[in-house]
Amino acid sequence: MGSVIQKKLGDYVGVAPGSEMKTTIRLAKKQKARIALIDQDIETTLKRFSRSLTWKERWNLLVDIFKGVVLRKNELEDLNIEKFDLTKVPSQEVIRVLINKMRERYPNICRVLIDERNKIMARNLSYLMNEHPEKSILAVVGAGHEEEIIDLIKKDLDNKISYSFSVKNSN
């Protein structure tokens, strides 16, 4: 079901699922850089996802899928989001608002799909930064993960090594 939704969303916004990974591989080859997969294995994520859903969240998800969207236009207006273009990466403020809304309606989905994975990705990036302090590391992560991963890494690396972050959108 997830792959069907991902493909439909990709068709809608004009971005093929997995295109960011293909771009990462192409850029790594061009730069002769190594690739490290820092995210949790998808099978583990999907198992945890299916086990963590409460009946209320399953019902909410079914209702939202049936309606066709998680947030209707008037709900976006209630959240003070005037314009939402799925073909562009939203601002961090819009991402924060949408994730907070998701946390209210789907706390377990957010925990499994966002929070747990952020910790894993931050831990793996911290490890790479500690193991290779002389190297630059390019991390490709979804916009909804970016802010918390940076915060987690900063806490983990505090006073251990020097670092800086440069965040760039693909737009």
Textual characterization of the structure:
The structure is a single chain. The chain is mostly helical. It has one domain (36-157). 64% of the residues lie in helices and 0% in strands. Helix 3 packs antiparallel against helix 7, helix 6 (92-105) packs across helix 7 and helix 7 (107-131) packs across helix 8 (143-157). The longest helix is centred in the last third of the chain and has 25 residues, at 107-131. The mean pLDDT is 78.
- Number of alpha- plus pi-helical segments: 8
Question: Segments where pLDDT lies below 50 for 5+ residues?
Answer: none
Structural class: mainly alpha
- How many domain regions? 1
- Major sheet attributes: none
From the N-terminal CA to the C-terminal CA, the straight-line distance is 28 Å
From the alpha carbons, calculate the radius of gyration and give it in angstroms: 18 Å
Shape summary:
globular
As a percent range, the share of strand residues is under 5%
Extended strand count? 0
Instruction: Give the fraction of residues assigned to helices.
Output: 55-70%
Summed over residues and divided by their number, the pLDDT gives a mean of 78
List SSEs in N-to-C order.
Answer: HHHHHHHH
